[in-house]
Design goal:
40% of the residues lie in helices and 17% in strands. It contains 15 helices and 15 strands. The strands form two sheets. Strands 3, 4, 5, 6, 7, 8, 9, 10 and 11 form a nine-stranded parallel β-sheet that branches. Strands 1-2-12-13-14-15 form a six-stranded antiparallel β-sheet, covered by helices on one side. Bound molecules: zinc ion.
């Protein structure tokens, strides 16, 4: 039985789910990079489509797209989103009059929809491990260390009950070692730190060639990686790195539908859960990342299914001590929420999702199989109500402001697609 899912009043009640990795603007291109552009399409050719879309955004369009995305997240049970935000400046690379205008658009969208936001302004400085400058399309992502810290400190002053501001390092290829040291030294002790790492084989090869170590190994050897850190993807790991991540206390943000969509590779879930085999398994959570799918059900289902497909076994996340796959998965995402988002456990306790006891896939469910029924049966959402910080924002599976948010999104999309 999962103590965090309880029955009562015609509902199953569970804690809201944290979405540990989001690039909100990419919601606008979901489903639009599924045509062949090159005989060996990969993450790197997808990135070209992403850059073209990114170049069309301003604060108003970002606000409209993020509000749609956040309302969709709430409707399926995500109550916190970690926004890994690198679209900082105008398309020509010049800062807006308010250098944090794009961050403010995300904060406004979160406030309007009621989702809890961990905003992670991204430090992005170079176009590769060799330190090459950002290209024309990457210029709007870039900062000096001082410029970055100034924006970070300005945003930190806006923190409140439903807003936390942490730090994101885009990746090892985008942040030179000396800049990483300076930024990490300047951060407040409680700031959460997220970084993309080891998502691509090409990134592992470049890191080995230029820094002499695999990316995760290099990071662990050159930064004080601990429970404040979330490593995004961490797909390509050797055995020593898997154990070292678990020992560090860091969380891994796994993004199964995006990693599948981009052809990244498969996270070694079973080995991560076992850690060093002495009971200290690794922490992990999920992210919808590029938003080709916005559903914790689908992320968790594909996290498990990917493992089944390669191992030709079933029930990979489960153990003898925790035999329900669904319960084990939900316990995993709940266990990492505080340390990955920066919100206190007490605050997150006000974030509640209820499932409709009468949803077809939940008829006759018991406390022992409710998590499995929710995660592994059908495609109709069973989410009924969602409350964040004690305030209900979804009822009967619909966000309270669904219509006006959708209308503004449609208008923003028409503009983006015409651009
Ligand atoms: Zn990402």
């Amino acid at each position: 039985m999962n103590p965090s899912i309880a029955s009562g009043h015609g509902h199953w009640r569970l804690p809201g789910i944290a979405n540990l990795h989001s690039h909100a603007f990419q919601r606008a291109m979901a489903g639009m990079a599924e045509r062949m552009t090159h005989p060996s399409d990969s993450f790197w050719t997808w990135r070209e489509t992403m850059y073209r879309m990114a170049a069309r955004f301003g604060p108003d369009t970002l606000h409209a797209v993020a509000a749609q995305l956040y309302a969709e997240m709430l409707e399926v049970g995500y109550t916190t989103v970690c926004e890994f935000h690198y679209l900082h400046h105008a398309p020509d690379g010049r800062p807006y009059d308010d250098p944090a205008a794009m961050s403010q658009a995300l904060i406004a969208a979160a406030r309007e929809t009621g989702i809890r936001l961990t905003l992670l302004p991204v430090l992005y400085m170079t176009g590769g491990f060799d330190g090459r400058p950002l290209n024309t399309r990457q210029r709007r992502f870039g900062h000096s260390v001082d410029g970055y810290l100034q924006m970070f400190e300005t945003l930190r002053r806006e923190q409140n009950e439903t807003l936390r501001v942490g730090c994101a390092l885009h990746s090892l290829r985008a942040v030179p070692p000396d800049a990483m040291d300076l930024v990490l030294a300047a951060l407040p002790q409680d700031a959460r730190i997220h970084i993309h790492v080891a998502e691509q084989i090409g990134e592992v090869q470049d890191c080995l060639a230029i820094r002499g170590e695999r990316p995760v190994r290099w990071l662990l050897d050159h930064a004080d990686v601990d429970a404040r850190w979330t490593l995004v993807h961490a797909t390509h790991l050797d055995v020593d790195e898997i154990v070292a991540i678990a020992d560090s206390g860091a969380t891994v943000a796994i993004c199964p539908t995006t990693e599948a969509n981009l052809g990244d590779g498969l996270f070694p879930l079973r080995a991560h859960l076992e850690g060093d085999g002495a009971g200290s398994g690794g922490r992990w959570g999920i992210g919808s990342d590029s938003h080709s799918s916005v559903s914790p059900v689908e992320e968790l289902r594909w996290l498990e299914y990917g493992q089944r497909l390669v191992t030709r076994h079933r029930n990979i996340a489960a153990t003898a001590a925790s035999p329900s796959v669904g319960e084990t998965l939900l316990r995993g995402v709940q266990a990492s929420a505080v340390q990955a988002t920066g919100f206190a456990a007490e605050a997150l306790s006000g974030d509640i999702v209820t499932l409709d006891e009468h949803a077809s896939q939940l008829i006759g469910a018991t406390a022992d199989d409710i998590a499995d029924r929710w995660l592994f049966a059908g495609n109709r959402s069973a989410v009924d109500t969602v409350a964040v910080d004690g305030r209900e924002v979804v009822r009967s599976g619909r966000h309270f402001d669904r219509e006006p948010i959708a209308a503004r999104f449609a208008s923003a999309m028409r503009g983006l697609l015409a651009g």
